User: Fold ABC transporter domain-containing protein from Hermetia illucens.
Amino acid sequence: MASIKDNSSKRSSLITHIVKTKENNATNNDAKFKVAEVNETSMEMDRLTGSGLKYLPKWPAVNIEFQDLSLSVPDLASGKKTILKGVTGRFQSNQLSAILGPSGCGKTTLLNTLAGYKSDAATGQVNINNRPRDMRLFRKMSRYIMQNEVLSPHLTVVEAMGVAADLKLGNDLKKEQKDEVIDEIIDTLRLNKARNTRGLQLSGGEKKRLSIGLELVNNPPVIFLDEPTTGLDDAASVQCIALLQRIAHSGRTIICSIHTPSARIFEMFDHVYVMAEGQCVYQGSSTHIVPYIQEFGLSCPLTYNPADFIIEVVSHEYGTEYNEKMVAAVDNGKSFSWCPHSHHEDTEDSKGSSLLAHSHHEGHTIEQFEEEIDIKQLKSKSSWIQQFAVLLRRMLLEMWRDTNYIKLKFCMTITLGLIVGGLYEGVGNDATKALFNFGFAFGITIAYLYKPMMPVLLQFPTEVRLLKREYFNQWYKLGPYYCAMICAKMPFQIFLALIYLTMIYLMSSQPLELSRIVMLYAVSFLIAMNSDSFGVLIASRLSIVNAMFIGPVLACPMILLSCYGIGFGRGVYIPTYVRVLMSLSYIRHGLEGILAALYGNNRADTFCPDDEVFCMFRKAEFLLNLLGFNNLNYAVSVSALLGYYVFFTVAAYYMIKSRLSFSTCNYAAVQYVSQFVKTHLNFASYKY
Ligand SMILES: Nc1ncnc2c1ncn2[C@@H]1O[C@H](COP(=O)(O)OP(=O)(O)OP(=O)(O)O)[C@@H](O)[C@H]1O
Assistant:
């Protein structure tokens, strides 16, 4: 609660910072930045830090500077493709900044690199408040809102905000205080009418505003947005940018990449950074862009949108020579001549000087900060167990509300139960149908291979998108998410398994002995859990299409190995390597476990009908010997299934962790493995 006590001092320092910035701006005689606006900003602060937001931690200004940023990626044709070519620039607190440029010029790449989203391969320097960026800390203070945001589909706006508040604010605030924060944000985002609308039913603009709102919950000092207006109509785009402007002017650093803003949206940006072919062709105020272009002998028609005009110029519509000239004029971002508050530095010696030199030698260029970011404030406010509880509740609610999914699974279970039960009716205790009963046991393993695995292959790649956003934005750790995911599936899976197994067990007339029933249910459930985890392991690094292909393909050899040697009889030699491979198939252990449950423990002889002269398979032992299952051991099968479950679960956890990893580890071996996995096993689309 220290944060609440410190609020007033932090707020006043934030306003002091705003005043400073505005005063600097005032020296430029820029109408947009008059000192008089400071009062307005203060009022904006009051409004945004009004009733609910006053509980949230306040941060000092965070300014981002970058120098000589370059990034290359492997290219099939040329071997290497350079996306960012030594760009320099800065984005300041209390400003709404835009990265602008034609498609493919490197806007998203620059944004990703600055946010640390995909920055491993980048070279150059990124400074936060004049100090080298500490990626771990920076990730805690910044939020990244991606282009195609994924929201919880079955939670309403207010429920989704509640989950975000519980995860991000933990016990720091009481429930009523959190509700006030949520109401305030919903109000600011004008989402009141959609308060009780589910994510799935929100309009594009509402989704976008909600994804911004979710990240505002703990008042982050820095927000990156990739194309926030994509998919919105003009009115919704203006609303969205106006909202971002208000948030920025309340003391935050907001940076958006934007494609083709309308004139109205363009003038809302305090600072624009225009790129072409991976280089900076302009950085400064949006209002200075027309005089800037005029310096190159091009005049923007009065009725023309300056943003469209500069994009046309850098897209070579007025000749190919301008890009080079523009990059030289702003020294690829090193010159701040066109930035509002550095107009007075528009001298020859300031042009082309390095950004770091600027900040160190000319204290007025980058504000000096009275306050450092309090690292303690950046720590997660919710404990492991709280995160687990909130995520489990959310997952169960999501599952419960997805009524179509529940109905479908329920109907499928009953239908499958009726079909299998009907096909194997009465085979359980009939000595003439013992081989059919083996088919029944095999059928259980196949059903529990595919039934749990296929939905995971289909759903998990989509779930990863939500996980990726929330994990990157520090909502929770992977451990509680993963455990909640495992636990959330269990109740429904157990319920369906009980229905299915009871139906087929009774219909097929298996022995009505409690111990056998419990053993069969337990081993069937273990097979299902293994298949679920195996599915997660496959889907952890694959797209839906690849997962749906690889999953069944990998299942085939496991099925074949599970029944290899059937009919060879007792004592027939099976090569050691095949035995090893057979033991690698958890389906084999599952089948052995089911047969042990049905035929183990000295099962009494099965019934031989009177009209049969001789029943060969009356004795369970004879049947098992003939099928090659003479050494059944239920405990060994269950232990093997548990072992495989632990292995798949842990392996899937680390695969997901490596997929979500945004930083490089210090250990060379781990780096190598991680790089190998990212390069060779990265079949999923990372554009999300
Ligand atoms: N991993 C990658 N491998 C190869 N090329 C890449 C990779 N990532 C980006 N690129 C290429 O780098 C260039 C810049 O991509 P980026 O997504 O940053 O562009 P952008 O300016 O955001 O474009 P848009 O406005 O269309 O989204 C593009 O030509 C893109 O094809």
